[in-house]
Each structure stands twice: as structure tokens, then as C-alpha cells.
Amino acid sequence: MQRHRYNYGGDPSQWGELFLPELPDGGTHRGVVVVIHGGYWRPQYGAELGQPLAADLAGYGMAAWNLEYRRAGNGGGWPGTFQDILAGIDKLAELAESHFLDVAKVVALGHSAGGHLAVWVAGRDRLGGLGLEAEHREVGAGDGGVRVTGVVSQSGVLNLAEAERLHLSNGAVANLLGGPSSEYPGRHRYADPMAALPLDVPVYAVHATEDDDVPPAMSETYVEASLSGQVPAQLVTVPGDHFALIDPGEPAYKKCRELVRELLA
């Protein structure tokens, strides 16, 4: 396995680490998995959470990009966190030639708050149509860039309005977005994966049955709202708690790996 670290911006949190399995001469990696860690968008949790997953995926023959990003409290929040997810994924286009990456297939694997960001970025083509021009300009989503072609969300926070109502993790949503939805309704809608439905890429909303950190309703309501689209999301329940999903030895994670491999096929 090879590991290569690259910056995609000037901030200490704007970097990613590429984990690559060995390739036969003349070969190309079949797509890339972008690993997006969770931690309720706060700076005390970082890319070390995603490192074991990226290493495991590379061990099973998949190129993986473990992405770090600014969080609320270290330069992120609104709009920095969202800008970084876009820029960090777009960096893959620059790395593709030198590392034999096929960026026509990019699967986002995100845990918890990372699940939110993974599904949000999969809807980047729809963000400009939400009628929220100010928010669109602030984030700078624009056209072009590397597109996510599939998502595996691991107990993702996929319904921001409901997460705010439940005051999850002591107001993590308002902390991410700089204030409550009553004060910033536009950015709350723009940041909510529910607003970008329907998507035209497959999303697996995997949720652990004993998850006490992110309620199953976060995945259930997202999947229900997606059902009218051409590519409805699928709900997948797995045994274990919130962190079983990012433990390579647990069945919950192994199911996620299986789904990632399916999306890259």
C-alpha cells in the first residue's frame, strides 16, 4: 500500500491522504472512495477517525482519499466546511494522472456529520436551483469539478431541520451554520441534504440499530423523502452502536465496505 498526503488549500486542516493499493503495470484504479469523518462538525475530531477505513479499503483493492476539512471552531462552519468538502474532492482531478485514478467513479463514505457532508456534496449540481443565490455564492459551489457518483452514509445526519429541532449534540447544527434557522433560514436550507432531493446518484443510508448518538430518524426521513425520485435512497440497518460503523473489525463496517465496492463496480 502507498500513502500520499496532499494539501488542497493553505489552512492546516485543508489536506487529504491518498491510500493506494498496488497496481499492475499499466493499470488504473477503479474509482476512488472519499472518506469523510464525523464528529458533529467540531474541531476536536479529525481525519484520524477515517484513517483506519481508508487503510482497510486500500487493503481490499480500492483507492481511498481520507479527507480533512475545517470544522466549526477552527475556520470552518459556514461556509468554510462546505467549501472544503468541494475543494477537497475536486483535488482528485489534479491527482488523477499521476496516481492512475479514475475520477469518473467517486464514492463518498461518510460517518455521522461526515455522512451529512457526503450526501450534501452528491447534490452539488442541484444546489444552484434552490433559489438561494446568496448562499450559493458564499459557498462557491459553481459548475464543474469532480462529481460524486454514489454515497454510503454511515448513521449520517441527513435531515438538518430535524436535527436542529432535536438539538442534537447540544446545538451542533446551529453551531455549524452560525446560528439557528430562524436567523439564517437560507443557509440552513442550502446545507440540508433534504433540500437537494431528488438526487440522480445512488445513496445507501446505513444506520446502526443501537445508535444513541444519531437517531435512526435521520436516515429514515431522508430515505422516505427520496422515494419519489428516479434513484431513491435505500435504508440499510446494521447491528452495533454508532462507532461500530467505523471499526473495520465489526460487521456494521464490513457491510459498508461491501456497499462501497458495489458502487464502484
Q: What's the overall average pLDDT, rounded?
A: 96
Q: Could you give a short account of the major beta sheet? A: 8 strands, mixed
State the total count of DSSP E strands: 8
CATH class reads: Alpha Beta
Question: Which strand order does the major sheet show?
Answer: 1-2-4-3-5-6-7-8
Helical/strand content category: alpha/beta
Fraction of residues in β-strands = 15-25%
Write down the Rg.
17 Å
CATH superfamily: Alpha/Beta hydrolase fold, catalytic domain
Topology diagram in text:
Elements lengths: L1 E6 L7 E6 L11 E5 L14 H9 L3 E5 L12 H20 L6 E6 L1 H10 L10 H7 L10 E5 L5 H6 L6 H6 L7 H7 L11 E6 L8 H10 L7 E5 L12 H14 L1
Parallel strand pairs: 3-4, 3-5, 5-6, 6-7, 7-8
Antiparallel strand pairs: 1-2, 2-4
Short summary of the structure?
The protein is of the alpha/beta class.
Give a description of the structure.
The chain is α/β, with parallel strands linked by helices and 265 residues long. It has one domain: Alpha/Beta hydrolase fold, catalytic domain (Rossmann fold, 3-Layer(aba) Sandwich), CATH 3.40.50.1820. 34% of the residues lie in helices and 17% in strands. The protein is built from nine helices and eight strands. The protein has helices at 51-59, 80-99, 113-122, 133-139, 160-165, 172-177, 185-191, 217-226, 251-264; strands spanning 2-7, 15-20, 32-36, 63-67, 106-111, 150-154, 203-208, 234-238. Strands 1-2-4-3-5-6-7-8 form an eight-stranded mixed beta sheet, sandwiched between helices. The chain starts with a strand and ends with a helix.
